[in-house]
């Protein structure tokens, strides 16, 4: 487990070429997070317009006692896409009876850095990192007798990257990871005015634009492609019918790009669809999870922009 590489290079290249050779070009959003992408995302989380991280932290802080009660004692706390582990600290500060903390991340470098820092600050917590792409199935460490409750912490509305169908499959997988009690503590972004949503993904400093274009920079670096990032424009639009923000990279002109031996050509105005970020009402979300989980608690901020929810395995 610990030595296996989470991202397989040739599978990544296949996925990228496959996505770019379709009539409607697309690239998978999970590839945003190389080192530069993770750093840019970190900057996004501190932007004025990007309310998600701020609101989520506020909700966690304001309801920490109830949240800790729901996690219970002797829990294995599994965090998906742990990133910089900032929100984790809010929990670890208050949980004094954890069986283990298991961060799962696709970016090995970021994960190890975060784990080293956490180990210094929380010497009494058993921390077991897992390098994995959690969008595929992965295995949890075998703690057999030593925990009572498995709680999957999935903050940041990362669940929004999955379509409703993928969300249901994902929840089924999460429920099947444990043979005993299993809950999820999950951050879910809520539907709201288009202006607010679109501003969060088209920030005035252009950080989100750099984050989006970094996908092309990464393909250049890792696969020797020759994307000219100056000839693409970032745009995020709220698709109200589908309830999701869609991020695009629009080709400013007719151009072609070479990736390995493959030529990919663009018309002027043609775009690559790089990310979906689904937004839910509380009712929508409840009906999506209801096959596998029950919504036990919902906490929101005063504007009801964001929610943190505790789900129980059925
Ligand atoms: C990490 C998937 C929650 O959808 O808001 C932020 C990623 N993309 N700005 C989101 C993202 C552009 C983010 N998630």
Automatic annotation (TrEMBL):
A GO term for molecular function: L-histidine N(alpha)-methyltransferase activity
Enzyme class: transferase
UniProt entry keywords in alphabetical sequence: Methyltransferase, Transferase
An example Gene Ontology biological process: methylation
InterPro entries to which the protein is assigned, alphabetical: EgtD, EgtD_Methyltrsf_superfamily, MeTrfase_dom, MeTrfase_EgtD-like, SAM-dependent_MTases_sf
EC number: 2.1.1.44
Domain spans labelled Histidine-specific methyltransferase SAM-dependent: 14-311
PANTHER family associated with the record: ERGOTHIONEINE BIOSYNTHESIS PROTEIN 1
UniProt name for this protein: L-histidine N(Alpha)-methyltransferase
Source species of the chain: Fodinibius salicampi
Gene expressing this chain: egtD
């Amino acid at each position: 487990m610990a030595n296996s590489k989470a991202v397989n290079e040739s599978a990544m290249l296949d996925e990228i070429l496959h996505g770019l050779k379709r009539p409607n070009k697309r690239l998978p959003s999970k590839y945003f997070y190389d080192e530069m992408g993770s750093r840019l995302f970190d900057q996004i989380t501190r932007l004025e317009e990007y309310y998600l991280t701020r609101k989520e932290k506020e909700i966690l802080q304001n309801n920490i006692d109830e949240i800790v009660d729901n996690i219970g004692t002797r829990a294995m706390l599994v965090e998906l896409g742990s990133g910089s582990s900032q929100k984790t600290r809010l929990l670890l500060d208050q949980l004094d009876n954890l069986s283990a903390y298991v961060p799962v991340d696709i970016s090995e470098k970021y994960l190890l850095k975060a784990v080293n820092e956490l180990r210094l600050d929380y010497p009494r917590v058993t921390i077991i990192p897992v390098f994995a792409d959690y969008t595929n199935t992965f295995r949890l460490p075998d703690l057999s007798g030593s925990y009572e409750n498995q709680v999957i912490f999935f903050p940041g509305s990362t669940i929004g990257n999955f379509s409703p169908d993928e969300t249901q499959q994902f929840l089924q997988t999460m429920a099947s990871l444990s043979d005993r009690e299993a809950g999820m503590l999950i951050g879910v972004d809520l539907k709201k005015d288009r202006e607010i949503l679109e501003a969060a993904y088209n920030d005035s400093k252009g950080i989100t634009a750099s984050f989006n274009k970094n996908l092309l920079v990464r393909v250049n670096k890792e696969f020797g492609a020759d994307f000219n990032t100056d000839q693409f424009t970032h745009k995020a639009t709220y698709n109200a019918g589908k309830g999701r923000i869609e991020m695009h990279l629009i080709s400013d002109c007719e151009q072609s790009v070479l990736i390995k031996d493959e030529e990919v050509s663009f018309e002027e105005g043609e775009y690559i669809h790089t990310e979906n970020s689904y937004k839910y009402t509380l009712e929508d979300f409840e009906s999506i999870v209801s096959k596998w989980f029950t919504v036990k608690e919902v906490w929101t901020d005063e504007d009801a922009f964001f929610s943190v929810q505790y789900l129980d395995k059925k």
